[in-house]
Inverse folding.
C-alpha cells in the first residue's frame, strides 16, 4: 500500500536535506581547483615560451621580461600549484562520479563560468601581446610557436571545462581511458617543461654569486656618483677636486654613503680607490663571475639603464680596476 505524505512534510524534508548539504565544502574544492588551474596554466604558458626563446633566440628581443628571475617565479608557481590542482581535481571528480558532490549546485556553475571568464581574458591579453611583438618585428617562427602554445593551452582548459559540465550530470560515472590518457599527456608535458627549465636557468649557487657581483657593481656605481658630487656637478659648487681618500669622501656633508656602501659584501674589505690625475681616478673590486656587454639580457640588469654619465661596470673574474673620471 502506497502512503501519500502531505506536501508540507515532503517540502520540509527536502529543505532539511538541502540545509544539511555542505555547500561550503563544494565552494572550497572548486575554488581551490580553479585557482590552481589558472596559476598552473599561466606559469606553464610562460615556461614553455621561455624554452622556445632560449632555443630560438631573436636579436631584437632586447629587454624581454622572461629573464631568469621571471622564469624562476613561473617555475615556482607551477611546481607548487600544479600538484595541488591534480589532487583537488582528482578528489572533486571522484566525489562527483560517486554522487557525494552535487553536479547542479550554483557554487559549481558560478565558479566554472568565473574561471572561464578569467581564462578567456588571459588568452586575449596573451594574443594581444603576441601580435604587438609580431608587429614590432619579432621572428615569425617564434611568433607562430608562441601563438600555438597559447591556443593549445586555451583549447585544453576550455575543452576540459566543457567536458566537465557535460560528463558529470548527476549519474554515477567512472572516468574512461580517454580522459586518463589526456591527464597523463598533460602531466608529462608539464613535467618535461619543468625539467627543461632547470637546464636554462642558473643554479642557486651561481645565482648567489651573480647577485653578490651585482651588489658590488651597485656599490661601485654609487661611489662613482658620490665622488662626482664631491667634485661638483656642472654649475653646482663642489670642491673642484677629487677626494684624497674614501674617508675624506664620507666626511663631506653633501655626500651620503651607507655604512656598507664602500665595502665588499663578502670580505667586508673596502674597495680600492686611487687618484690618477686631477680628474681621473681608479676603483677596484674582486668579482666571482664575468659580466660583459653581451650579458645585457642578464637578470642583473632588470633595473633600467643608468644615466649615460655612469660607466657600465663590465668585469671579468678576479680583481678588476676601472679607470673613471669626473665631469
Amino acid at each position: 500500500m502506497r502512503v501519500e505524505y502531505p506536501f508540507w512534510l515532503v517540502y520540509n524534508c527536502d529543505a532539511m536535506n538541502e540545509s544539511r548539504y555542505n555547500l561550503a565544502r563544494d565552494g572550497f574544492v572548486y575554488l581551490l581547483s580553479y585557482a590552481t588551474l589558472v596559476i598552473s596554466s599561466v606559469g606553464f604558458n610562460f615556461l614553455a615560451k621561455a624554452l622556445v626563446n632560449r632555443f630560438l633566440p631573436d636579436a631584437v628581443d632586447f629587454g624581454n621580461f622572461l629573464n631568469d628571475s621571471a622564469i624562476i617565479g613561473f617555475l615556482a608557481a607551477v611546481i607548487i600549484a600544479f600538484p595541488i590542482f591534480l589532487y583537488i581535481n582528482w578528489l572533486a571528480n571522484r566525489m562527483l562520479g560517486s554522487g557525494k558532490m552535487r553536479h547542479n549546485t550554483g557554487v559549481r556553475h558560478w565558479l566554472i563560468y568565473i574561471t572561464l571568464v578569467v581564462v578567456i581574458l588571459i588568452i586575449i591579453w596573451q594574443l594581444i601581446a603576441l601580435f604587438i611583438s609580431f608587429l614590432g618585428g619579432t621572428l615569425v617562427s617564434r611568433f607562430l610557436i608562441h601563438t600555438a602554445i597559447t591556443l593549445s593551452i586555451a583549447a585544453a582548459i576550455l575543452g576540459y571545462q566543457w567536458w566537465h559540465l557535460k560528463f558529470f550530470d548527476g549519474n554515477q560515472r567512472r572516468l574512461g581511458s580517454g580522459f586518463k590518457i589526456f591527464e597523463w599527456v598533460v602531466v608529462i608535458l608539464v613535467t618535461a617543461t619543468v625539467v627543461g627549465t632547470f637546464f636554462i636557468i642558473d643554479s642557486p649557487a651561481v645565482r648567489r654569486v651573480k647577485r653578490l657581483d651585482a651588489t658590488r657593481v651597485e656599490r661601485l656605481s654609487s661611489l662613482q656618483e658620490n665622488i662626482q658630487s664631491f667634485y661638483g656637478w656642472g654649475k653646482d659648487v663642489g670642491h673642484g677636486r677629487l677626494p684624497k681618500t674614501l674617508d675624506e669622501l664620507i666626511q663631506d656633508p653633501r655626500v651620503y654613503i651607507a655604512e656598507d656602501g664602500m665595502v665588499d659584501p663578502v670580505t667586508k674589505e673596502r674597495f680600492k680607490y686611487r687618484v690618477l690625475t686631477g680628474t681621473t681616478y681608479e676603483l677596484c673590486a674582486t668579482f666571482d663571475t664575468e659580466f660583459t656587454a653581451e650579458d645585457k639580457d642578464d637578470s642583473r640588469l632588470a633595473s633600467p639603464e643608468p644615466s649615460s654619465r655612469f660607466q657600465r661596470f663590465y668585469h671579468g673574474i678576479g680583481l678588476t680596476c676601472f679607470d673613471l673620471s669626473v665631469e
